[in-house]
Amino acid sequence: MAAKKTVQRQGFKTNEFVVYPSHGVGQIVDIEEQEVAGFSLELFVIDFAKDKMKLRVPISKIESVGMRKLSDEALVKKSLKTVQGRARIKRTMWSRRAQEYDAKINSGDLIQIAEVVRDLFRSENQPEQSYSERQLYEAALERMAREISVVNKISETEAVNEIEANLALGPRRGPKEEEEEVADNATEEPAAEAAA
Q1: 17-76 pLDDT, tens digit each
Q2: Cα(97)–Cα(141) distance, rounded to whole angstroms?
Q3: How many CA atoms lie within 13 A of 100 on its CB side?
Q4: pTM of structure
Q5: Domains by residue range for the chain, with CATH
Q6: Which of 46, 51, 77, 188 has its CA 20 to 30 A from that of 33?
């Protein structure tokens, strides 16, 4: 019997790795036809090996669910540059920020995921994270690492190490950063400094 040939639909083909926003990187393992309510539907069968899960997505819905091809190397580099930036944390309630972080993680957008990794990263000299912060950070880190590992053809562990190495290149975080901000404010307002 002949080997199974590669089948392609809407620019996606079997055996290709793709990003499904709410689950991350998966591999199209098959294209099936199913009859649903008297209609014949073509479905991508996407395997998420790490989660031991298979997802069937109607080919007609891939655009509306936001399924996309893997990022290119340039976008991976941009995401690693993103994690080097200064954390941008809004001064809103944690529940609101947590929802925003979750939405970014499930957007499937590598840069938005990198922003969550950057914003929730804590170095050793910083205060501990709450359990929910840690969960979101790890979810974003894993999502980012999985895509980088497939794009750069490295293990997920190597991808995590690469992300963490780039986080370390970011601005100093922790007590020293706050001291610098105080020093900056003091130079802007010499009268306040003299009064102190």
Answers
A1: 999 999 999 999 999 999 888 889 999 999 998 889 999 999 999 999 999 999 999 999
A2: 17
A3: 15
A4: 0.81
A5: 10-69 (2.40.10.170), 73-178 (1.20.58.1290)
A6: 51
